[in-house]
Specification:
The complex is a heterodimer of chains A (about 425) and B (about 500). By secondary structure, chain A is of the alpha/beta class. Chain A folds into two domains: about 80 residues, no CATH class; about 300 residues, Alkaline Phosphatase, subunit A (3-Layer(aba) Sandwich). Chain A contains twelve helices and twelve strands. The longest helix of chain A is centred in the middle third of the chain and has 25 residues. Chain A starts with 11 loop residues before the first helix and ends in a 10-residue tail after the last helix. Chain B has about 500 residues and is an all-alpha fold. Among the domains of chain B are: about 110 residues, no CATH class; about 70 residues, no CATH class. Chain B contains 24 helices and four strands. In chain B, the strands form two sheets. Chain B has a two-stranded antiparallel sheet. The chains are: A alpha/beta (about 425), B mainly alpha (about 500). The interface between A and B is large, with 53 and 70 residues.
Amino acid sequence: MKNPAHLLPATRREFLKSGAKGVGLLAFSRFAPGFLVESAYAQAPAPEKDRTILVLVQLAGGNDGLNTVVPFADPNYRRLRPTLGLPGDQLLKLNDSLALNSGCAALHQLFQDGKLGIVQNVGYPNPNRSHFRSTEIWETASGSNEFLPTGWLGRFFDNACSGTPPSGDPCGVNISNEVPQSFLSELPHPTFSLAAGRNNRRQQGENLALLEQMVRTPAGQDDHDNAGYLRHTMMDALVTEKKFQKVLANYQTKTAYPGTPFGGSLRNVAALIAAGTATRVYYVSLGGFDTHNNQAGTHANLLRQLAEGLAAFQSDLEAKKLDSQVLTMTFSEFGRRPSENESRGTDHGTAAPLFVLGSRLKPGLHGSAPSLELERNQDMAYTTDFRAVYSTVLDQWLGCKSSAILGANYQPLGFI
Amino acid sequence: MGQKTQELTPAEAWQPLPAAEWNEAAARHLLQRMGFSAAPAELARVLQDGPVRSAERYFTAMPPLPKPRQIADLEADGPELFRRIANGSAEEKRIAAQEAREQSREALFDLTIKWLQLASRPENSPAEKWLLFLSDVWVVGVEKVKNSALIYQHQDILRQAALGRADGLARAVSRSPAMVVYLDLQQSNPKAPNENFARELFELFTLGEGNYTENDIKQAARAFTGYRQRQGEFAFAPRQHDNGSKTIFGQTGPFNGDDVIGLVFKQKAAGTFLPKEMVRFYLSETPLPAAHTDALGAWWAGEDYDLRKLAVKFFSSRLFFAPAYRAGFIKSPVQFYLGLVQDLQLSVVPLPRQLLGALRSMGQMPFDPPNVRGWVGGRSWINSATLAVRRQLISALLAPINEEALNGDEQIELAAAYADGVTNFTLDQSQLAQWARLPAAERAHELVRRYVPSLAGTVLEREVAAFLERSTQHSQAAAATRDALATLLESPDYQLC
């Protein structure tokens, strides 16, 4: 018997062929935790009818808010952005003072259709300009000088998932290179990582039964160390893998998603939602926003990818009548400095707007626009705390008491 | 997790391991953590030499990596490509830029394969892993640098400085053309000093967060103005350099970049930063208590930040061999792959599309880290997607290559390797047939003993035997042996070292 030369299957057909050789899941039921076995026997149970879903889109690198939602009428904008300032006639007007970057055409349409909200000038006190630290602050919902070991969504899982959804589906699914810090939780919850893009191939081992025996926890062994972590992850992966493969391969949609990896990732999120997966949080990452030089073209292209992907996703959900269940929200670790730098780019800054998208929200502009009465290289002062955005989503969308997750009460915003 | 240091006091922790505690298990631990696996020949010698002499031997000199042919070609063709991109018509620009990208990508593949081949030789593994460590601190990424020739050069700069003084390494890296591009020194000038390099120098390369102020960064950025690279060579542009007075870490003077690095290495945090990074890279996701790293940092500062001395001290210390650090560390994808190559006695396959695709999907494409922090490591290596790729990689290494499915270039590449007498890219199938002759229990023991010794004598060894028992016919027995071996290599235990 010849085996495939490629370390990874090169085609979908090859993948499906190799997957078909897998040993039955139930062969190892003797060793699997109870809930996994139940879920395997039960296949996909009917989802709860009205559960709400959050799709979080990370714009990694620090999105330039000022050239995303552009205060085109403000003379300060021209002063701070002599070469990067976008000409008014190329912008997509939101009102007399604000407009979207021309890359956001698809989002502009959604704005006009009443499905897009923009929360302006979101940030936090004492901003940190390190990518890592500021990402961590956003993902853990901590204060600037506070270090939290868990993520805000992980704490939501702790509060809302009490173990795991009854179907055995993961609490959170991420389509990013790493499991996001947002998902880190106190209690263990299954989460699942998909590779970016549409063709999410997986291969089944040829002797899963023996592997599944290897994966079970030996009696009396501490399960909190790395070995325990590996076992849990392998077991969850083996179960979810089979189910998701089937869903993604069989997904039928009339919506034309853009051919970008981001578009493919959102198509897969739609497929999982349409299959009634009990997962309530999806996390998709789009990178490249760290535009220190020659920003203009790069930034418009990134926004175009974002806008076209989100618009296809929304339209697909509408066609499937799932749109009332889903809220999509973007975030980025920081905005960029109002003054452009000498390399026709922008350096790390502070506050920025974020987008919320869905059929059941209050569209339009929320919060207030930043003041640009700034010295050269001075940063914007935020006017909406990002934790107020989270608290609105938690209380009014996910139905989870936000003070338990955020450790404080924040004034809800009007976007839901 | 809280008792990692056992009862060792900060002073005891860094003493050499007592001879009475040196044994085969300790030698395996040393080789797996310092290198990629406990290869039998190395194990015998290390066991005889002890940890201090072994570490001294492995860190005597860095093995050279001759410039890969495609990197040399890229350097040679570079000026002409630049000229076409700069002066050509719009169409010509587009074509030349496309060619440059393609050529750089191919050259990166060549470099990566050559490096993996060098690192896969057990006698080189500790030094090459040390280099991987240093490049995970002094990060540059090909995605932004774009020119693979600069990536090779950056690795060579680290290689030349890897066993010298850390401040010398820092000065050398600040002049690395790849770094000048990666952290935007290229655009930095007195009117608009770019803070990117100065920030990461303090935060991620030498001191760590909390050991500098925002103002230290702003001032240091001025000191590094004028650093340029021109066609792959470092160049200092005096007119673009800010000669003015700066105040950094409370010191005031007309500092230049080298002066800033001098000031950095007067900070206490400079002594503890790299040891902390070593703990994270080699030992544990849980940091040591501050007193333990402080002790090592103070000693290291007194040794003029000599990197070789630090490595020898670390890898022969009582703390390094403490029971808490045995067998609980998650292998990085590079270690997982090179460990497999060494354990199965294979050669690195010269097929970039397949091999590098697998490394990328496991989350660690060499020379292409996710960002300036490098790879986070530890549990972040493991999720359902990366585990699936680990499993596929094992299957591929245990079965013959289907050469008909290769494209033309790949067949030529493979034929050239065969002509050089290298054929062991996947497991020797006659080895499987040989094992298949053994009775199931004996065969299970042999597989476990060789590849996952921590499972020897456990219930899992008996389950492997039972699995083998079920395939009695000889033709089936070889296939079952391969499946059993694959499963052992996929097991949680093999993902740990």
